[in-house]
Amino acid sequence: MVENSSKDASEVPGNRVVLGLHKAPHLLSEGSASLKAAVIVFPGSNCDRDVAVALQASIGAPPLMVWHRDTELPAVDLVVVPGGFSYGDYLRCGAMAAHSPIMREVKARAAKGTPVLGICNGFQILTEAGLLPGVLMRNAQLKFICQDVLLRVETSDSRFTRRYNPGTVLRLPIAHAEGNYFADPATLDRLEGEGLVAFRYVGADGQATAEANPNGSSRNIAGIFNATRTVLGLMPHPERLAEPALGGTDGRAMFEGLAEAVS
Questions:
Q1: Does 3.40.50.880 match the CATH number of domain 9-22+33-261?
Q2: What does 85-126 look like in DSSP terms, one character per residue?
Q3: Active-site residue identified among 128, 239, 243, 256
Q4: Cα–Cα dist 2/22, whole Å
């Protein structure tokens, strides 16, 4: 189990901390890292260390762990907004985190084209911050869901999905109570028409059916891009299936593709 790195601001010297991570010798080559990444840490983050481990295994160096109260972001090639329960999910999930000081800088970097990846709660934060359209609502069953799901890759035309073939079915875990993606019909049509749906919930046959939809998301959508495909939000957790020891590696290609994109 990877420990939670959430800290009170008083515990973070200079409001920024770089955490020591376990290395995966079979995946890393010392000094080979070319991608510089930052992971935003909120009070209530519980997947920040998980995604940092997955990133280090692919890029060869630990990412910067940037505290939510920071107002500056170092020069990086990728920003990750991780999963968890930022601010205890009070108000709406991600609503308070979207107004954290560091998010102003994240939005500014995104506007300049820096890739931003939001996973689970990070996806919720990106919609609340206006970096992605739509909202994440309560699951249709009104229950927290924690299980593996199947996803279909809708496009390989992005830095995030370049290592996947379109139509590939992945197995990734979800763990959320508010993962029901909703947008108005015009927005959904635009996402579909512009190829901005990244992942879709499907069954074992690769078909997007109601039975394969775990949370009621519109059109079985599990992840979307912004208009330039430089921002990706998805509810499933690729970092939780990025090592054989975790039970699978379907998520690893996302991080490896990101590393390749700037090499």
A1: yes
A2: -GGGG-SSTTTTGGGSHHHHHHHHHHHTT--EEEETHHHHHH
A3: 239
A4: 10
Give the pTM: 0.87
Q: Decide if 237 is catalytic.
A: yes
Asked whether the predicted pLDDT for residue 241 surpasses 90, the reply is yes
Integer Cα distance of 205 and 211 in angstroms: 12
Catalytic pick among 47, 93, 105, 120 = 120
At 33, the amino acid letter reads A
172-183: pLDDT as tens digits: 999 999 999 999
Amino acid at 83: G
Catalytic annotation present for 256: no
146 a catalytic residue: no
Catalytic residue among 47, 105, 237, 243: 237
How far apart are alpha carbons 175 and 239 in whole angstroms?
13
